[in-house]
Each structure stands twice: as C-alpha cells, then as structure tokens.
Amino acid sequence: MTDRPSSGPWHVSPAADAAAYHYSWLWLLIPLLLSGGRFPNDYLFLFCLVAAANVAHQTLTFPLALADRELFRRERTLFLAGPPLVLAATAAVLALSRLNFPAFLAVLGASALVSAVWNFWHVYMQKYGLLRLYAAKSPAAVKSPGWSDRLFVFAWLPLYFAVLGPRHRGLLLNMFPLMRGALAPILGALASASAWLAPAAAALVAASLLSFLVHERRSGAWSAPRLSMALGLTALSAAFLLFDPVKVALAFGFSHLTEYFVFVWAYERRRGLPRAGFSILAFAALSIGAFLVAVGWGRLISPGSRFPVVWGLPFDRIGTVFVVYQSLFHFHADGRLWKVSRPEVRRDL
C-alpha cells in the first residue's frame, strides 16, 4: 500500500471537501431555481442527469469490488449473492406485471415505499458518517458525542413531515402513484396534527443546533471541517422549507452522489490502487451515458415521446422495477462497506 500525505482534519482538502461534501448541492440548486417550475419539463436535462448519476453511483460498488481484492475477500458473500438477488426480484415482479396479477402493484408499491423511506435515511446517514469522520480526525481531546451529531442531522425530518407533507399533499400523491394507498392516510394524519406538530418539530431543530454548538465548544478546539459541513447542511435543510421542494430534493440527491464519488475515489487513492480515480470517473461516465440513451429515448429531444416496449413491457416499467431493487441492495451494501466505526475502513480515511 502506498502511503499518502495526511490531509489533517479534512478528508481530501479544504477546497475539495467544501465543493464536494459541504456545498455541492448549490451546484445544482442554483440552475434549478433559475429554471421554470413545471416538473420535470422545465429542467428535463438536469433531472435526467441526476437520475442517471444516481443509477451510476448505486452500481459503482461492483467494479470497485473487482479492483479491490481485499474488499472483495472481506465481503465475498455480499458481492456474489447481491446481483442474482436483485435480478431475481426484478424478474419476479416483472413476471407478475406481464400476467396482470394485482399482486404486482401491491408488491412494487410496498417496495417503492420502503426504498423511498430508506433513501432518506441512507442519504442522511452518509452525511452523519462524514461528520463522525471529521470528529475522528479532529485533534480535540474531547470528541462531540455521536448522539448529538445524529440529532443535528435528523432533527429536520419531523419538521418536513409536519410542514411539507400537508403543504404538498397533492404533489406527493401525483408523483408517487404506486404509493398513493399508503401515503394518503399518512398525509391526512399529518395535516390534522400539524397545528401542534410543526412548533414541536421546530423546537427540536433549534435544540439540535444548540446541542451541536455546545458540544463543539466543549471539545476545546473548533473543527473547521465540521463547522463548514454543519453550515452547508443547515442551509440545505432550510432550503426545503423556502423553495420548491422537488428542486431542493434533486439538489439534495446530487449532493449525496457527489459525496459518494469523491469519498470512494479518496478511499481507493489512499489504498494505493492504480488509476482508481480514472476508473471511477470512466465507469460513472459510461453508466450515465447509457442511462440517458436508454431511459431518455428521445425525451430530451422530443418531450412527450413514448418509451419503447421490451418483452411486452414499457421500458420505463422495467427500469423502475430494477432501480427499486437495486436501490435496496445498494442501501444495505453501503451500510456494511462504509461503516466509519470499522477499523479496516477508518484505516484508509
């Protein structure tokens, strides 16, 4: 393994961390806010680009395992069993779809709901992991406790449920028709409770910010990376309440993808694997290009064009089913591969 120079309290460097980890969401949110408000027609290319990058980052684990023999040996069962399970689940649900079984909508709707909820958890856990990484690299004698960082990251979720759910009920039901049966009663209950739930959720956000600052002060050494990331995350979280939540959600997802690509590149670079950065970028570019060609299917050139039919099924349905189950595997795999608490992971951070 090749020794790499220390980056001090930062993961890569101050400029790279700020651009990729702390404020990467601005790279997409600003052009989105300058676009029209019709979803997704007024910003179709940006929407497709984020969707394509999302698929690319989910499947990046596999070429990474092929290049990193130690990682493959450590998680052999995960890498060997994961792809067949994803393909089997996709094939089974698509078979139900072709046979017009009512169970298709029920199974896919439940899977999509689990995937959507887990996605929020997964994205926020990545940001929590970066905060804990900075805490581990901080020279402070007393580290901020994990529970305070977790509260700081997740405290905004109840406020989203209390405010955004009732405010955008129609939009959510239209955007997620497969989950309408489960979403409608949940959104109705949130609307009924919003009068007392919203103030309580806002108080929780205020308490989380105060807790974060108090523990940073008690550590005896203010951490520039943690403060910069905290500022960026707070601004991003507040943006959901101030701007079009669909556009902010796209920027939120874009920040997650950027974090992931840079994190994996830096991890492999520290491990001394040759051409790690080039391999990651090449794979991402090929995946994004393939997605835009296959799923776009003329939409970027001719909006409103129809998807092709493959094996008697619309191509968008095949892609949706695959992405749902690939997402579930990706969430599980990342939870195992990138736990900062594991010594073999911390060693190369």
Briefly, what is this?
By secondary structure, this protein is mainly α.
Give the termini separation: 14 Å
Strand and helix order = HHHHHHHHHHHHHHEEHH
Shape annotation: globular
- The order of strands across the largest sheet is 1-2
Poorly predicted ranges: 1-5
Structural class: mainly alpha
Q: Provide mean pLDDT, rounded.
A: 78
User: How many H/I helical runs?
Assistant: 16
Q: For the CA atoms, what is the radius of gyration?
A: 21 Å
Helix content: over 70%
Please provide the count of β strands: 2
Largest sheet: 2 strands, antiparallel
Question: Which strand-content bin applies to the residues?
Answer: under 5%
Account of the 3D structure:
76% of the residues lie in helices and 1% in strands. With 349 residues, the protein is an all-alpha fold. It has a domain at 14-98 and 246-346. It has a two-stranded antiparallel ribbon. Residues 1-5 have low confidence and may be disordered.
Blueprint (SSEs and pairs):
Layout: H1 14-22, H2 25-33, H3 44-59, H4 61-67, H5 69-74, H6 76-98, H7 103-137, H8 146-154, H9 156-167, H10 169-175, H11 180-218, H12 224-242, H13 245-270, H14 276-296, E1 309-310, E2 313-314, H15 315-337, H16 343-346
Antiparallel strand pairs: 1-2
Descriptors:
mainly alpha; single chain; 349 residues; globular; two-stranded antiparallel sheet; 1% strand; 76% helix
